[in-house]
Write a structure and sequence with these properties.
Immunoglobulin-like; five-stranded antiparallel beta sheet; mainly beta; Neuraminidase; about 425 residues
């Protein structure tokens, strides 16, 4: 089969013809050559549960994604490079209990240059192709991917590619943080920072994954204040069922997006604290963020200030309030200073006590915990009962869990002794 390009569109000749697999294929490009739109439809009355789409580029790169099924579909190849030839392939699949049954691959080629150059394509591939998708080329795109554990084992999906509204999802900025929560309605929601410095969401609805630009749709003074470069993201679902996303704005303020009954709303938490506003600025060069909801239902946000102190914003009945936790510890204040670049992690243990862990300037793991008499500090590395002190922490992330036996456990990467 030969495909020709006319007026920027490539299609099998004759126009409108279905190939031997029952597919009609089209490719269109933008005037700038930036994006290629690959679309297809199947010959009635056929329809499929899903489509596999493969993109093969003449420089050797290759990628494969799954798209929603039915009778037609579309794939947008962003940032297509001028002068290269793109081969688009699609197959329809019906999913069953014991696996999928797929059509042979149909394909069309497109040479991404200005002008109406013809590109010769041989007959569609009659093979089924590999059973597993090829690994995406390094650095291609910034899509959100998922690994999920099904009854038959772990499965993968490119969530950005399969959103049901205007796929693919808006690309994430290089180095974007990720955070996810499950809201009271059972919907998993993924948050990330887009190339436009907006907070974006992917959420799993009954009809599939959907995307939203949360910054653009806030109900008060849209768009939401832009995200600072390298800002972390953190989110919690508070006792009232409201998901709340926290981030650092370009003004170094702690900011919030929250989902109210009327829609997403933004707030500058640093500006509205009820005691000595604005809240103390975040550390120069950026700060980690961590948040918990304590047993009393209060959301608490922890961050590192410019003075290397651990600081808190908490939502009381009268509004958000700030506190310098390092300064108010009841034992030998101030608390030991935080190492530059240290992570923060917090848990609420079975006794209802919130505990914050960080790496100190001495490379020890330190703790701030809220007791009945107030916040207290401890050098955990120094007080381990076996071969103290504990191995010093490298430039390490921190993670902590509370296991079913009520034991908090902290994990980190240590500098090994020679």
């Amino acid at each position: 089969m030969t495909c020709v390009i006319v007026g920027g569109f490539a299609f099998p000749a004759p126009a409108g013809a279905f190939d031997r697999n029952g597919f009609e294929l089209h490719v269109a490009r933008t005037e700038s050559l930036n994006d290629l739109h690959f679309s297809w439809r199947v010959r009635p009355p056929f329809n499929y549960d899903a489509f596999n789409v493969r993109v093969r580029i003449s420089d050797g790169r290759e990628n494969q994604v799954e798209r929603p099924g039915r009778i037609q579909g579309m794939w947008l190849e962003r940032n297509a490079e001028a002068g290269l030839t793109y081969t688009f392939m699609v197959q329809g699949c019906d999913k069953g209990t014991f696996g999928s049954k797929c059509t042979p691959w149909s394909q069309i080629q497109f040479r991404n240059i200005r002008g109406n150059d013809a590109v010769d394509v041989g007959s569609p591939s009659l093979g089924q192709g590999p059973t597993a998708p090829p690994a995406p080329a390094a650095g291609r795109g910034r899509a959100i991917h998922e690994l999920r554990l099904e009854r038959t084992g772990w499965a993968q999906a490119s969530l950005s590619a399969i959103v049901t509204n205007n796929a693919p999802a808006f690309p994430g900025i290089t180095g974007s943080p990720l955070f996810a929560v499950v809201t009271r309605d059972g919907i998993p929601r993924i948050f990330y920072v887009g190339e436009d410095k907006h907070i974006h969401e992917l959420r799993l609805e009954q009809t599939g994954w959907a995307q939203a630009d949360l910054s653009a749709i806030v109900t008060n003074n849209a768009p939401a204040f832009p995200v600072a470069t390298r800002s972390p993201l953190f989110a919690v679902v508070t006792r009232d069922g409201i998901p709340r996303i926290f981030y650092v704005g370009e003004d170094k303020h702690i900011r919030e997006l929250r989902l109210e009954q009327t829609g997403w709303a933004q707030a500058d938490l640093s500006a509205i604290v009820t005691n000595n506003a604005p809240a103390f600025p975040v550390a120069t060069g950026g700060s980690p963020l961590f948040a918990v909801v304590t047993r009393d239902g209060i959301p608490r946000i922890f961050y590192v200030g410019q003075d290397k102190h651990i600081r808190e914003l908490r939502l009381e009945q009268t509004g958000w309030a700030q506190a310098d936790l390092s300064a108010i510890v009841t034992n030998n204040a101030p608390a030991f200073p935080v190492a530059t670049g240290s992570s923060l992690f917090a848990v609420v243990t079975r006794d209802g006590i919130p505990r914050i862990f960080y790496v100190g300037e001495d490379k020890h793991i330190h703790e701030l915990r809220l007791e009945q008499t107030g916040w207290a500090q401890a050098d955990l590395s120094a007080i381990v009962t076996n071969n103290a002190p504990a191995f010093p922490a490298a430039s390490s992330p921190l993670f902590a869990v509370v296991t079913p036996d009520g034991i908090p456990r902290i994990f980190y990467t240590g500098w090994e002794r020679p």
